């Protein structure tokens, strides 16, 4: 590469590069991007696509943002990376200060890592090591709810839904965990106390072996894009306290404003024992994640037989990513993000409503800056993807779901165009 934009070698890509969740026998088409700015992706052939995916939830400020660009240049001019073992630096310190300030008390210990899946692995290890330090090693299993998705590494896969979590073929080699029924009480609808009975029963019967309950608060993401009642989360917190089980909140997808609150736990007014963050933390610039916990849990682990927490990624606390994350959080908090997300939510509710009349559509769901159209049957995803690109929008359906979660600062014209073309494509099924 010589610094200029070159036409990508798609033949090489097709033959040698394995893209996410794809086959090498008959690879699906990929669309080469040569530039990105705001909510638009420029393809090698000159077409511009309005982006509805925020690069899997992460690019909340749009692409090529001048403040994030400047932060990256400033940091890379100093140093891009140093090991975090035995060393520290101001970007990590400042990021930890920001995370502690915006998350609920008593979450005041921050473990920085390099991806959402790893943040979940760390949370699970924290929970298990906590109970081991308390001389209750029998508490090493996880409880979760069906319909969830927590990542692609092994411990994370073990708490994904065995079917909708995309890891069914690994069932026999993964640790066996407990799965409660998916919450059926929907967000914004009256609470039905029977909805918690499945979870309550599993906790009552198995709490002696359960280290933690892990769930995605209020919004289940890649496992099914399902929005459930905050009352379920309140009851889950109460049950965990009653049965001496830790509560892990996976806010990797929902954190930093996506649901209309800074963190989805705020809808229920609860604090988890361990909190996982990622995706939008750097505004989509670099991979970075964090697992937060309380002094009580951190000190208990530290006083245990190992004498430390047994984890340390090579790129933990990467200075370049931490510096960008600081700027991204500042940019978010200084912006009218609540009003922007509310505007997107209102537009999605109105403009996606016609989809309910289509024969192919089972349901339409909207919460915050998330719009979901669920189909009765899974479509030909390759054909639908191509149809959407031909309509000049970037929307990546999966299973029976066609969904969008645009950048918070998407302009009105682009948002209207994006939703309109999504409705067109669904209508043509």
Structure description:
- This protein has 429 residues and is an alpha/beta fold.
- It contains 13 helices and 16 strands.
- The protein has helices at residues 10-16, 54-57, 66-78, 90-102, 116-133, 154-158, 197-206, 230-242, 295-302, 319-334, 337-352, 381-390, 412-427, and strands at 33-37, 40-43, 48-51, 107-113, 141-145, 178-180, 210-215, 219-220, 226-227, 246-250, 274-277, 289-294, 361-367, 370-375, 393-394, 401-404.
- The radius of gyration is 22 Å and the shape is globular.
- The two termini are 41 Å apart.
- 47% of the residues are buried.
Features:
Aspartate Aminotransferase, domain 1; alpha/beta; Aspartate Aminotransferase, domain 2; about 425 residues; 13 helices; 2 domains; seven-stranded mixed beta sheet; about 35% helix
């Amino acid at each position: 590469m010589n610094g200029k934009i070159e036409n990508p070698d798609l033949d090489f890509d097709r033959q040698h590069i394995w893209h996410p969740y794809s086959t090498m026998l008959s690879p699906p088409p990929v669309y080469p991007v040569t530039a990105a700015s705001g909510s638009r992706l420029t393809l090698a052939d000159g077409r511009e696509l309005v982006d509805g995916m925020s690069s899997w939830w992460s690019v909340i400020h749009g692409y090529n943002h001048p403040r994030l660009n400047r932060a990256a240049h400033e940091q890379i001019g100093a140093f891009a990376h140093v090991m975090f073992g035995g060393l520290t630096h101001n970007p990590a310190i400042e990021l930890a200060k920001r995370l502690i300030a915006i998350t609920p008390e008593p979450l005041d210990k921050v473990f920085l890592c390099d991806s959402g899946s790893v943040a979940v692995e760390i949370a699970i290890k924290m929970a298990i090591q906590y109970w081991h330090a308390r001389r209750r090693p029998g508490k090493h299993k996880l409880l979760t709810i069906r319909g969830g998705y927590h990542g692609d590494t092994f411990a994370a896969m073990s708490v994904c839904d065995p079917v909708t979590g995309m890891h069914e073929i690994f069932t026999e080699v993964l640790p066996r965990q407990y799965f409660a029924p998916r919450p059926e009480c929907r967000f914004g609808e009256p609470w039905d106390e029977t909805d918690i009975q499945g979870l309550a029963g599993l906790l009552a019967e198995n709490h002696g072996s359960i280290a933690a309950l892990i769930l995605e608060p209020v919004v289940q993401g890649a496992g099914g894009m399902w929005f459930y009642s905050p009352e379920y989360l309140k009851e889950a917190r109460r049950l965990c306290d009653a049965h001496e089980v830790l509560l892990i909140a996976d806010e990797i997808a929902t954190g930093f404003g996506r649901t209309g609150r800074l963190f989805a736990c705020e809808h229920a007014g609860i604090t988890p024992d361990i909190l996982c963050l990622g995706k939008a933390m750097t505004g989509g610039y670099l991979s970075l994640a964090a697992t937060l916990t309380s002094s009580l849990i951190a000190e208990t682990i530290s006083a245990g037989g190992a004498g430390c927490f047994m984890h340390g990624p090579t790129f933990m606390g990467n200075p370049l990513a931490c510096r960008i994350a600081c700027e991204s959080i500042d940019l978010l908090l200084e912006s009218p993000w609540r009003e922007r997300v509310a505007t997107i939510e209102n537009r999605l509710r109105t403009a996606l409503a016609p989809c309910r009349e289509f024969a192919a559509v089972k349901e339409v769901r909207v919460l915050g800056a998330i719009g979901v159209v669920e189909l009765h049957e899974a479509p030909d995803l390759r054909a639908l993807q191509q149809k959407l690109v031909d309509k000049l929008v970037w929307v990546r359906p999966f299973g029976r779901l066609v969904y969008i979660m645009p950048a918070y600062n998407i302009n009105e014209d682009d948002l209207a165009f994006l939703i309109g073309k999504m409705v067109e494509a669904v209508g043509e099924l």
